[in-house]
Amino acid sequence: MPGVQRVDVENEDEWIAVVKPPFGRGLNLKLDMHITDRRAPEHARLTAWGKSFGARISIETEFELAEGGDRTDMVWSADVGLAGLLAGLGGKALEPIAQQHAERALDRMQAHIEAD
């Protein structure tokens, strides 16, 4: 996840991340993250919520994994809700930023896997 400053692991299904998002200068968000559904190895659902002075965010994302020969195919989706200071940014403004950061993270993950 872009902008992660710190992660405090509670257990394998819960953690807290302090994030400095690529938008909202000077804003740090503390996100409580929870895996709410898991069917290893093919499915997971993650929810997160956080707030900072005058801003709130909620995230729900799902991952579906499937074997594809010598690779693993992944389909994912995310719903992001913004309130307070973040609400003014709007989904259309954030969509390209989120897409770019997701693609970078997945590219880094793929490079790491291929290096092993």
Largest sheet: 6 strands, antiparallel
Say which CATH homologous superfamily is assigned: START domain
Q: How many domains is the backbone divided into?
A: 1
Number of helices: 1
Say what the CATH topology is.
Alpha-D-Glucose-1,6-Bisphosphate, Chain A, domain 4
At the first level of CATH, the class is: Alpha Beta
CATH architecture: 2-Layer Sandwich
Question: Which sequence of strands runs across the widest sheet?
Answer: 1-2-3-4-5-6
Query: How many strand segments?
Result: 6
Order of H and E elements: EEEEEEH
Describe this structure in words.
The chain is an alpha+beta fold. It has 1 helix and 6 strands, in the order E-E-E-E-E-E-H. The chain has one domain: Alpha-D-Glucose-1,6-Bisphosphate, Chain A, domain 4, CATH 3.30.530. Strands 1-2-3-4-5-6 form a 6-stranded antiparallel sheet, with no helix packed on it. The longest helix is centred in the C-terminal third of the chain and has 26 residues. The protein starts with a strand and ends with a helix. 9% of the residues are buried. The mean pLDDT is 80.
